[in-house]
Amino acid sequence: MKRSLAALVLCTAGAVIAHAGVDVEQRASPGRVEVLESVDAVPAAIMGRFRDPTVCARVPGGPYYVFDRRGHSVHTIDAGDGSVRTLVEIGGEEGRLLDPSAFDVAADGSFAVADGPGGRERIQVFGAAGIRTGGFTRAGRTAARVALGSLVLSGVGSLVYTGRSVVLSEPDTGWLLGEFTPLGAPLRSIGRLRPTGHEEDREVHLALNAGMAVPTADGGFMFVFIAGSPAFRRYAADGTLLFERVIQGAELDPVLAAQPKRWPRRTVGDRQLPLVPPVVRTTALDPDGNLWVTFVQPFTYVYAPDGEKIRTVQFRAGGVVAPTSLSFSSGRHLVVAPGCYSFAW
């Protein structure tokens, strides 16, 4: 069945924001925000080799994995000597990448990448050494393209790889999540769409149901809505909805106040699609089961496994860092891209 193309979500956001250029201090309530200073980083001379290191993730006890989106490639950096090894290079054929949009790595070092050779949406799965072990193309199906600047967040861009399966945000199927084998066989669909008040405009309704999935240790998922009213849900391993929480905080007030009631249209191919501003930039689950949600504003909220907010965090490494990815490594360290900065959490 051919899929509908949902609304685009576009916003320009910098990666590292200088103190003098952003009024972040005035938006944060005194005493509310914990500032985490970088305790380590991959040397700038190494990171400068990459064009757009959208994801930097360290496998426990292993190397850093770097997804260079504009370089159409995946690399590892040895945590000891800093040597760089290229695992996947540019190219349209199987085992290479062309126009990639998303990357995720499992604890064993295997990883998956979404790309788009010839406009086709493709998922490829690789072993830790960069050898292709699976993959599939979503022929005849056009997924939602929800983006933060040039960073695609939905459709194949919402890719999550558990080490055993691939999970995608799929609101245009009537479900929030679709889970597939590494060869593309459908396993299950999870989560009914939320009401948005825009059901009469299907493209807006689908955009407001796009989101990011985070696997939990019990086999379930957290699902974070990335646009519209910020919220997240927790699903059990059997797909049962356990709870839903609204995301609120003073740091989000400027973003939510700027949310329009109607959206201008943009021509994409032969379609007129609404432009819906995003709220969430990236998300991850720490080893204690806490959910970290980073916003377009350079703040991160942390939620306990029961859904209660326990921290408000801001990352700094010379300037305020607006993460494009969060990765929890061993020793209670968090690796943030861009920059491959490490923070003690």
* Range of helix content: under 10%
Q: Estimate the strand proportion.
A: 35-45%
The CATH architecture would be 6 Propeller
Q: How confident is the prediction overall: mean pLDDT? A: 86
Structural class of the secondary structure composition?
A: mainly beta
User: What is the total number of structural domains?
Assistant: 1
Low-confidence stretches: 1-30, 141-145
Strand tally is 31
Total of helices: 4
Using the coordinates above, name the CATH class: Mainly Beta
The CATH superfamily label reads TolB, C-terminal domain
Write down the overall geometry: globular
Rg measurement, Å:
19 Å
Q: Under CATH, the topology is which?
A: Neuraminidase
Main beta sheet, described? 7 strands, mixed
Looking at this protein, list some descriptive labels.
seven-stranded mixed β-sheet; 31 strands; mainly beta; single chain; Neuraminidase; disordered N terminus; 345 residues; four-stranded antiparallel β-sheet; globular
Structure description:
By secondary structure, this protein is mainly β. The protein has one domain (16-339): TolB, C-terminal domain (Neuraminidase). It has helices spanning 24-27, 44-47, 202-207, 253-257; strands at 16-17, 34-37, 40-41, 53-58, 64-68, 73-77, 84-88, 102-105, 111-115, 122-126, 132-137, 147-148, 151-152, 155-161, 166-169, 175-180, 186-192, 211-215, 221-225, 231-235, 241-246, 265-268, 271-274, 280-285, 291-295, 300-303, 309-316, 320-321, 325-329, 333-337, 341-344. Strands 1, 2, 24, 25, 26, 27 and 28 form a 7-stranded mixed sheet that branches. β27 (309-316) and β28 (320-321) form a beta hairpin.
